[in-house]
Amino acid sequence: MPEALRNVAPFLPYMIPPLIGAAIGYITNYIAIRMLFRPLLEKRVFGVRVPFTPGIIPRRRGELAESIGRMVSTQLLTEDAVRTHTGTPRFRSAIHDSIRNFTTDLLTAVPSEHSRDVVHRVVRGSEHLINSVVEKMLHSDVFVSGVGEVAHRTVLSVAAVPLGELFPAERASASVLIGNLYDSLTDGKLRQKVLAVADEWVARQLQANTPMSDFISDDTVSRVREVMAGIFDPTFEHLILWLRKPDVRHEMARHGRVILRDILDKLSVVQRFLVSAAQYDRQLEERMPQIIDDLIRTLETAGRDQANRDRVIAAVVDAVEKIRSQGIADAAWRGDLDIQLRARQLIEEVLRVMSRQSVRERILSALDGAGSGLSQASLGQLAEDYFDVSRETMAETVQKMVTRQISTPASIEAISAAVNGIMQRYFQRLEHEPLGDVIELTAQRKQQLDSLLSDGVYRIVDRRLPEIVQTLDVRSLVVDKVNSLDVAQVEQLLLMVIARHLKYINLFGALLGALIGASQIYVARLF
């Protein structure tokens, strides 16, 4: 026996049992762990399945996948866990960076042949879609009310602007503004407008046979009575003085003789013989000037009588009352008057008088002092001061007109065509220019757009997070993924996590076997 073995031989009885126990423990644990995974497939001998094949994990892989999926969905990727992550500044920054990069690429991309083909297809198919969308938008109450509100605010804004800011500096003074308006009224576009409006207005009144009482009020009748009472005496005095003029008296005497001859011609032969025989006709012709003087004195006496004076005034007022009781068309027919022609002639005559240089200078001179502050006044102030129309009333009127006009089929068709044309022009530019150049987006606007989009995406994710997590179905996702792996990949996946721990289990088995072997030596020595 070699010397070394003789020296170790006394200790072998104490060393071999622990070594054998350690080997047995290590090997046993190693085999047990391997049996968790191996064999990977089922083994059969003479058609009978060999026990413990396949290994536990390959045999129970479905249950393992289900267990892992349930644990991940209920313990790891929960709504609270995901929300905690999405609420971090890092997550929000990542969203903003992604949006910024996406918009940069989108806005700066140079059109390619493929993109041009896409644009062509979009242009061809967009017209009907755009018209449909625009038509629905125009029919919506939101759009109509929105346009009306814009018109309302615009009128209020314009009404607050001084006239001096609405015209060039050399045409903004009060005298120039008034002069231009005056010239346009007397011999310009405004004149034609006034005449056209007057013709249309009179035509409507005639067609409706508007009662004359709408134009001649009770106050007007009272004023007629007062005017007649005031002008009767001076007018009557002028009439008497006019009648006493020699030329007028001579003319009246001539007409008197003509009337006398007409009367004599209507007499019978006997009557004319008697009158001629007594020379009454000659005497009447000779005394015709005295007869005219007697007639004037009689008229003067009757006119100065208060009762006759009151009768004349009452007759005039009664005539006005009769006119008030008729329609304007009836009054025109009874008076054989062309009201529309007369009204136009009256307006033209007034405008013709106003166009005279002397009249123009006097009127403008009078208006110049009254309109010294006109250039500083606003349209709204002028409407309130001269037409008794408030700015709010003007704004509401325009708002109603705009909302009514924009709802007509013709307006809807016109706006649809305009929008479609604009969109097509933009699409055609996209064939040759990057999107950023077409919409002319500045760096500041792009930054605002990126912030807006990233904030919007973040709010959508935060608000829809429960639905997102539920839609992902983490448990099914994990189960399907584990089941899609082959057995070797499952083994490798698990060993990546627990390989170190399995090594310690093997070592622990060896240690435990060594302790058992040592305990056997101790028990053997006891007995």
Question: What do these coordinates show?
Answer:
The protein is mostly helical and 527 residues long. It has a domain at 3-90 and 464-526. Helices cover 82% and strands 1% of the residues. The chain has helices at 3-8, 12-37, 56-59, 61-76, 79-86, 89-108, 113-139, 141-159, 163-166, 174-187, 189-208, 218-243, 246-265, 269-277, 280-286, 288-304, 306-324, 328-334, 339-355, 357-370, 379-386, 391-406, 409-430, 435-439, 443-463, 465-472, 474-484, 487-526, and strands at residues 44-45, 48-49. A two-stranded antiparallel sheet has the order 1-2. Helix 11 packs antiparallel against helix 19 (339-355). The protein is rod-shaped.
Number of strands: 2
How much helix, percentage-wise, in residues? over 70%
The strand order across the widest sheet is 1-2
Compute the number of helices. 28
Main beta sheet: strand number and arrangement? 2 strands, antiparallel
Distance between the termini: 30 Å
Strand portion: under 5%
Average pLDDT works out at 75
Shape: rod-shaped
- Helix and strand sequence: HHEEHHHHHHHHHHHHHHHHHHHHHHHHHH
Rg, Å, rounded: 58 Å
| Contiguous runs where pLDDT drops below 50 for at least 5 residues | none
* Helix/strand/pairing category: mainly alpha
